[in-house]
Amino acid sequence: MSAAMERHKLTCYHRWIAKSDWKKRRIAQKNPGPVKPVVKLVNFIRAWGLQHRQFITFLEETDTDYQDLLYHSNVRWIRLGKACQQVWELKQEIISFLELLEKADDFPELSDTDWLCDLAFAVDILTHMNELNVKLQGKDQFVHDMYTNVRACKTKLALFSKLMSNKSFAHFPTLATLKEAPRHVKKFRKSLDDLHGEFYHRFSDFGKIDVTSAGFMSLHTRS
User: Fold this and answer.
1) CA angle, 120 as apex, 182 and 94 as ends, to 5°?
2) Cα 181 to chain center, whole Å?
3) Tell me, what DSSP letter sits at residue 140?
4) What is the rounded distance in angstroms from the CA atom of residue 79 to the CA atom of residue 130?
5) Which residue, 22, 39, 132, 128, is CA-closest to 86?
6) 178: phi > 0 → left, psi -120 to 50 → alpha, else beta; which?
7) Which residues contact 76 (CB under 8 A, 6 or more apart)?
8) Please, what is the Cα angle at 31 between 181 and 191, to 5 degrees?
9) Sign of torsion, CA 94 115 185 136?
10) How far is CA 153 from the centre of its chain?
11) 3-state SS class at 196
């Protein structure tokens, strides 16, 4: 294969990985429990101008660190992690606001400890995936660098699952705040193992491409 063809192949693969949001889609598909209510809640608060302004005023009066909720839709997957985190950190303020509107009964999940565990897990795992996205989207990266980051993430997922089997939540600080978390270890380990398997499936040829890219870089350096 010519150097030009190798360059084109590697460039296409780089773009596909850097722009892909399949990780968050897979997390949402495998764990719809926390995601759908978050989207419903955020869209409810922001759906009407007056209601949205009332919520912003309410946050100002409660002196929180947030001034608003980040809008999320099924298209903007990259915002999913931040939306979940905001709902988590503002959950008490949101409950109070919904009670003022007499709408708290429309969102029973906010008082459901099992759902809150799911949300906390989603916040933490999406944070890890966002960190990987930032690394993959860095400028001037060779595929070898991206492969190293993906391989490191796969290793972390396996470690997370192993630690969680011992009910250790060292890498899940949000989940660790809930005393009910140990009851859900089996479910969360399965989610981690499924995500690890998805990485293996999606990047099964990445090692071969990494070897090719290393050869390409060597040729490029000598030229």
Assistant:
1) 130
2) 19
3) T
4) 10
5) 39
6) beta
7) none
8) 65
9) negative
10) 13
11) helix
Domain ranges of the chain: 3-222
pLDDT in 10s for each residue of the chain, 223 residues: 444 444 444 444 445 454 445 455 555 555 556 888 988 888 888 877 888 888 888 888 887 777 777 655 543 555 778 888 989 999 999 999 999 999 999 999 999 999 999 999 999 998 998 888 777 776 666 777 777 888 888 899 999 999 999 999 999 999 999 999 999 999 999 999 998 888 777 766 655 555 444 444 444 444 4
Report CA 214 to chain centroid distance, whole Å: 30
Angle at CA 115, nearest 5°, toward 109 and 119? Answer: 110
